[in-house]
Amino acid sequence: MTALTLSTAAASGLRADAIVVGVAKGAKGPVVALGAESVDKAYDGKLASVLETLGASGGEGEVTKLPAPSGFKAPVVLAVGLGAVPEKDSAYDADTLRRAAGAAARALAGTKRAGFALPIADAADVGAVAEGALLGAYSFDAYKGNGKDTKAAKGKGKAENGAKNGKAPLAEVALLGAKPRDKAHKAAVERATAVTEELNRARDLINTPPNDLNPEAFAAVAGAAAKEHGVKVQVLDEKALAKGGFGGILGVGVGSDAPPRLVKLSYTSSKAKKHLAFVGKGITYDSGGISLKPAGHNETMKCDMSGAAAVFAAVISAARLGLEVNVTGWLALAENMPSGSATRPGDVLRMYSGKTVEVLNTDAEGRLVLADAITKASEDKPDAIVDVATLTGAMMMALGGRTFGIMANDDAFRTSVHEIAEEVGEPSWPMPLPEHLLKGMDSPTADIANMGERMGGGLVAGLFLREFVGEGITWAHLDIAGPAYNEAAPFGYTPKGGTGSAVRTLVRLAERTAAGDLG
User: Fold this and answer.
1) 286 carries a ligand binding annotation
2) Which end of the chain has fewer CB atoms at under 10 Å, N or C?
3) Where is the active site (predicted)?
4) Which of 367, 376, 504, 508 is an active site residue?
5) Among the options 151, 164, 293, 350, which is catalytic?
6) What is the CATH number of domain 193-515?
7) Pick the CATH number of 3-137 from 3.30.465.10, 3.40.50.720, 3.30.950.10, 3.40.220.10
8) Is 496 annotated as a binding residue?
9) Which residues contact 154 (CB under 8 A, 6 or more apart)?
10) In this predicted model, what pLDDT tens digit does every residue of 64-74 receive, in sequence order?
């Protein structure tokens, strides 16, 4: 993990490989942002014009390197674009700072130390720059080179992030303008470090190939982290699942040689007044089962456990932050494979709730494991349940690759979750649960079918899950199918591959619940 320090040093005197400054897009060309005054002065006040000569505009994420001025101990100045100049010169929003810091950190791969002289007005800005830099510096290289670390996921902690066949991640970031003795600044960095370390652990899990991360291995990783951070862990294996009547999880996992698991992670605070339950879909590989996915749709299906990875990271983050709220995480883990023992289209499963489900499509498996876990989570009578899942291609069709959908049985809670997601920089959109779509899941054989109308398929899946939420419990469903795995080029602080989508939303939800901001 990239080290992060607070520094009051002048940019000119910092021993580093590069100094990072912000540049915005003004009406008449690039504008040097606050925090870079001393750097601009060293260029005789002409840094903006030099950058413009080099082709820089200040556009978001744009990176321009130039030789440092005479007298600087760092040899390079890196200017990163912040986008349009804000109405108030110092009022860059938090995610603008995160994205800029992330882009700079990615561009500085292979260097040991960099000083970030980005606009910092308060502790929130310190936290945003810290998060962006630590997330942007992430890389997953466990399977490159001599292969000594490739078993990292098998219960021995997360994979190490270090280059074996390429540039190592930026090793250290010094936040210039932040105050090492300021309690708020220190707290912001400590929070950013805890959350980003766990988010990056989630990314590691998502990126780990399924031959090394099956349900048992995932459960082992979760158990080891839980014990390290004082979180109680309970793992139900295939025998316990059968004894308990978890027909959904067993029905999905029965076709694989790697049996399913249901993991319960419990973080408790003696000062808690509220209890949140997070439920994550953890399909460690999804072939589609008997309803086999077509060619070209299998290669990234190791990411189908991204919801469980997000829940795992959020619970451990809550423990590390010592939040005054009880948080329970449920990881519904299975591998969906075709075989002679696999569930067939037309089979009927008896769920943990007692309801029966006619399986019309074995590739609609995520809702089956989630339904059992949601029912189980409801038994603890939490104040709210939030499930997270790479659930439907339909949600990707509706919202694209960077935005997740939010459905809920309570409009006010859905609005709150949406506001929180936007606050932490995770694009999302509130989606409806139209009652008329329930009719499409009528089954002549069972209580409900696992498929309904094709149009609005993401909403149908949400309606299915709602059927398994305990009476009187507030619930929200996050369909992260789009943003969970980035197949395009990296951008901002988002890498190619697993992203850790929804982790920061869940953590902020827990923080606001602990503070009493959600009623």
Assistant:
1) yes
2) C
3) 293, 367
4) 367
5) 293
6) 3.40.630.10
7) 3.40.220.10
8) no
9) 212, 213, 217, 220, 221
10) 999 999 999 99
